[in-house]
Automatic annotation (TrEMBL):
Molecular-function annotations in GO: GTP binding; phospholactate guanylyltransferase activity
Function per UniProt: Guanylyltransferase that catalyzes the activation of phosphoenolpyruvate (PEP) as enolpyruvoyl-2-diphospho-5'-guanosine, via the condensation of PEP with GTP. It is involved in the biosynthesis of coenzyme F420, a hydride carrier cofactor.
Organism annotation: Rhodococcus tukisamuensis
Identification of the protein by name: Phosphoenolpyruvate guanylyltransferase
Keywords from the UniProt entry: GTP-binding, Nucleotide-binding, Nucleotidyltransferase, Transferase
Length: 232
């Protein structure tokens, strides 16, 4: 069952939505077998969660998913999870994030809520801390991804503001159009979400976390991947 949400005051609650693994990373299908894509998603999730847990400004992490394997990884990583309500319609990701943000206990006091991508293998906790600090002066803020079109993180710090997620194609423009502010910090690991082979090459060059490095080794991804950054 899902874990209770117990939040230290004034620290952020990170929400990570992960879809059914059978539908994960289809843009890598030309390079990786389905089982390899699944293992890669889980490795990147482990590294994303591990980095977020080192952020001093993070008080809670909750993974939202319909997939029991992802639930097992969340429990293995020592973080909470909620079942994906699998809302009908054309906007399931945003629906589950809205539902999770509205969950009792998700935002006690002035706690910030962060909708974070789960495929950030090069994330550093210090980057997330810096983004949360930069977001304090804005009701809603985003970290635009390395392509300049997507959203790596949506941060809501104002208690009266709703999460109002707009993830999907051109989500950065959609979030900005809804009133969010784009943060301008130099956070390469936070901005580098992985969907394509080029993204994975970029992550391998930047230096992913240990779980992703091991998975790249197993699948024979020839990009010279090495853990070149400290993940503490």
């Amino acid at each position: 069952m899902d874990t209770a949400l117990h939040m230290p005051p004034h620290r952020a609650h990170v929400l990570i939505a992960v879809k059914d693994l059978g539908r994960a990373k289809t843009r890598l299908a030309s390079r990786l077998l389905p089982t390899q894509r699944t293992d890669l998603v889980l490795a990147m999730l482990r590294d994303t969660v591990a980095a977020a847990r080192t952020a001093a400004a993070v008080g809670e992490i909750t993974v939202i998913t319909p997939d029991p394997t992802v639930v097992a990884v969340a429990e293995e990583c020592g973080v909470g999870w909620l079942p994906d309500p699998q809302s009908p319609g054309d906007d399931p990701l945003n629906a589950v994030l809205r539902a999770a943000a509205a969950h009792p206990g998700a935002r006690p006091g002035r706690t910030a809520v962060v909708a974070l991508q789960g495929d950030l293998p090069c994330l550093l906790g210090s980057e997330l801390d810096a983004a949360l600090a930069a977001a304090r002066n804005h009701p809603r803020a985003i970290v635009v991804d390395h392509h300049g079109t997507g959203t790596a993180a949506l941060i809501v710090g104002e208690p009266a503001a709703g999460l109002d997620p707009r993830f999907g194609p051109d989500s950065a423009a959609r979030h900005l159009g809804s009133g969010a502010t784009a943060l301008t910090g130099d956070w390469p690991g936070l901005r580098l979400d992985v969907d394509t082979a080029a993204d994975l090459d970029a992550a391998a060059a930047l230096g992913p976390g240990p779980a992703t490095v091991e998975q790249l080794r197993r699948i024979g991804w020839h990009s010279g991947a090495a853990p070149t950054r400290k993940f503490t």
